[in-house]
Amino acid sequence: MSYDFVLEVKNLNKNFFKRYHGHNHIITAVKDVSFSLAKGTRCAVVGASGSGKTTLLKIILGSLKPDSGEVVKSSAVGFVPQDPYSSLCYAMSIREIIAEPLIFNKVYRKVPDCEKSILEAMDWVELPLTYLNRNPHQLSGGERQRVSIARSLINKPELLIMDEPTSMLDEEVKEHIMDIILSASKALGNALLLVTHDINLTRYACSDIYVMQEGKIVESAETDSIFNSPRHDYTKRLILAGSSIHDYWQIQ
Question: How far, in Å, are 14, 113, 207, 239, 250 from residue 245 at the CA level?
Fold first, then answer.
């Protein structure tokens, strides 16, 4: 890996096998996907349901092995999952949840030793310190997601990966959550990889976009170029889906 990159994805392939009517059928989830992410940059992988982006994400995170290809990460990775309701342990306090990566990675042995880092992370996500002794069920969805973001950033990773980080939140809090993520990312200087179906969110947050369809990257370019002059029909449909559902269905 070049020292300028925090992530390189090289020629990834992943197939699944399903049996229908006594025969095995191959489902191609990821096909020859390659891209890289430089330090401090922000990029997105965009696609509708079934495009292969979730399989790609699992391979990058290491929870799924590819059939072939390679993922190279140069440093620790922070991860913000999609669901702020199921991703936090209800039996733990907010203080314990945010400290968890530091304890797991043996940076510190006990939660009280993490206090300085915890307070810093709470400041990044704009949560009151009075929340530290609460449990997740006492927080709103947006507040829980901010806890998840604080937990993902407490190790100050060079790469932050996000899986649909605002899709389960109310419309009025989505923009604020992204503002928090971008502000913290800028302060830490980390790179961002956003995996989402919402192409409009990428326009707000990312400088480069990889459009994924049927397991393949069908178009990639700077964000402004994607929106101003999309080349692939699938990209055009994604943009229309984000702006006019009527126009979207007219070109199906």
Answer: 32, 51, 25, 10, 9
* Tokens linked to 145: 């997601």
Residue 106 and residue 155: Cα distance in Å, rounded? 11
At 217, give phi and psi (nearest 5°).
Answer: -80, 110
Q: Is the Cβ–Cβ distance between 132 and 121 less than 8 Å?
A: no
Q: Which of 77, 90, 68 is nearest to 195 (CA)?
A: 77
- Domains in the chain (CATH in brackets) are 35-75+191-252 (3.40.50.300), 76-157 (3.40.50.300)
Q: Is the pLDDT of residue 229 over 60?
A: yes
> Of 80, 28, 85, which is closest to residue 56 (Cα–Cα)?
28
In the numeric block, the tokens 């060079």 are attached to: 158
State the pTM of this model. 0.90
